[in-house]
Amino acid sequence: SAVISQKPSRDICQRGTSLTIQCQVDSQVTMMFWYRQQPGQSLTLIATANQGSEATYESGFVIDKFPISRPNLTFSTLTVSNMSPEDSSIYLCSVSRVGGELFFGEGSRLTVL
Amino acid sequence: KQEVTQIPAALSVPEGENLVLNCSFTDSAIYNLQWFRQDPGKGLTSLLLIQSSQREQTSGRLNASLDKSSGRSTLYIAASQPGDSATYLCAVYVGGATNKLIFGTGTLLAVQP
Questions:
Q1: In which band, very low, low, confident or very high, does the pLDDT at B97 lie, cut at 50, 70 and 90?
Q2: What angle do CA A8, A9, A12 make, to 5 degrees?
Q3: Is the pLDDT of residue A79 over 80?
Q4: B20-51, pLDDT tens digit by residue?
Q5: From the DSSP assignment, how many helices (H) and strands (E) are in chain B?
Q6: Hey, how many other C-beta atoms are within 10 angstroms of the C-beta on B28?
Q7: How many Å apart are CA A79 and CA A64, to the nearest integer?
Q8: Chain B 17-76, CB below 8 Å of chain A: which residues?
Q9: CB A105 within 8 A of CB A7
């Protein structure tokens, strides 16, 4: 398995501000992903965080709104920019191991007022 | 387009009962299928991973089966306990141009003491 730490675990933010979520993994991994889980919904993939290059975004998600950094094989950040109440969600970092098994962090619960 | 559905959406059972959660997917071209558990407000815990070439996987009181041809997977929980209460999610990994994990809608399980 993999130990994945996310910070912050939760935050309450004002409309129009930005928040950066950090994800730290206990060992090097090739694939890192960021997911969003809106209230009462299942998980939706935001993007794949690529080490040393720009993230690969899914349809409906753009870099200006969700900039992602991946400076090395154990760390990534997701920024939620210019937040609105619709951005209130749980944001989850995940990593993939050999064999394709996916592991998740505890998530960052964001509330936008 | 791959779609993943879980039935039932919610389930309440008395402690000690054996139960089955269902997951169906529309496209049989998957690399693997993974079952997760999610406690309220938390991240996801990986329960079982079934590769496309496998028919089932077991871990303790959990047994997951996979029938690719019919697009179905089941998660069997034996002798349920109140601590099993959580949301259970299945997800299929689709490779190729899609190359991502697609999540089902989840089953909310409540085990009554």
A1: low
A2: 75
A3: yes
A4: 999 999 988 899 999 999 998 888 999 999 99
A5: 0, 11
A6: 14
A7: 9
A8: 31-32, 34, 36, 41-46, 49, 51
A9: no
State how far the Cα of A17 lies from the Cα of A7, in Å rounded to an integer: 17
**CA distance linking residue B42 with residue A108, whole number of Å:** 9
Contact A101 B105 (CB under 8 A): no
Residue with tokens 């950040």: A77
3-state secondary structure of B105: coil
How far from each other are the two terminal CA atoms of chain A, in whole angstroms?
A: 36
For an interface test with B, the pick among A1, A33, A42, A111 (most B C-beta atoms closer than 10 Å) comes out as A42
- SS3 of residue B9 by DSSP: coil
Tell me, yes or no, if A85 comes closer than 8 A to chain B by beta carbon. no
The C-alpha angle A1, A31, A18, rounded to 5 degrees, equals 105
Q: Are A60 and A68 in contact (CB under 8 A)?
A: no
Cβ-based contacts under 8 A for chains A and B: 54
Among positive and negative, which fits the CA dihedral A63, A64, A66, A67? positive
